[in-house]
Amino acid sequence: MDKPPAPYQADGLIPGEDWRRRLSEEIRRAVRVILVLSSTSIAKVGYVQNEFRLALEAMAYMPPNTRFAIPLLIEDCTPPDLVVGSISLANLQWTNLDEIEMDVFLNMVEADLGR
């Protein structure tokens, strides 16, 4: 298999690009964002917490009842009581992968997007 061109990376970032700014821009442009929650991700100190906040911040600028940030629990855990503006992560309906198969979840998201 041939190697990709030199400046290409699997995540689409160009070497030297500000990945934090790029992530923020991509979240603002997204139609939906899936927040993957686990005991590790909710307890982790660092950028993952900021990613959750960025998604909720983007949602705060959207009309009420817009489904944008979709919490997905990949293991048994309690979503953190993270609030940005008037948006609370704990108030968003989440999906628990212990109760539903991943392909069923993805089909639900695609159906919601009209695909």
Plain-language structure description:
One of its GO terms (biological process) is signal transduction. Residues 13-98 form the TIR domain. It comes from Stakelama pacifica. By secondary structure, the chain is of the alpha/beta class. It has one domain. It has helices spanning 19-29, 39-43, 47-60, 102-112; strands at 33-37, 69-73, 83-84, 87-88, 95-96. A three-stranded parallel β-sheet has the order 1-2-5. Helix 1 (19-29) runs parallel beside helix 3 (47-60). The protein is globular.
| Integer-rounded radius of gyration | 16 Å
Domain module tally:
1
How far apart, in Å, are the first and last alpha carbons? 32 Å
From the spread of the alpha carbons, the general shape counts as globular
SS element count, helices: 4
Would you identify the regions where 5 or more consecutive residues have pLDDT less than 50?
none
Structural class: alpha/beta
Overall pLDDT score: 86
Strand content: 5-15%
Determine the fraction of residues in helical runs and give it as a percent range: 25-40%
One letter per element, helices H and strands E, the order comes to HEHHEEEEH
Major sheet characteristics: 3 strands, parallel
- Strand line-up across the major sheet: 1-2-5
Organism: Stakelama pacifica
Domain TIR: 13-98
InterPro entries: TIR_dom, Toll_tir_struct_dom_sf
Protein name: TIR domain-containing protein
Brief rundown of the structure:
InterPro entries: TIR_dom, Toll_tir_struct_dom_sf. By secondary structure, the protein is α/β, with parallel strands linked by helices.
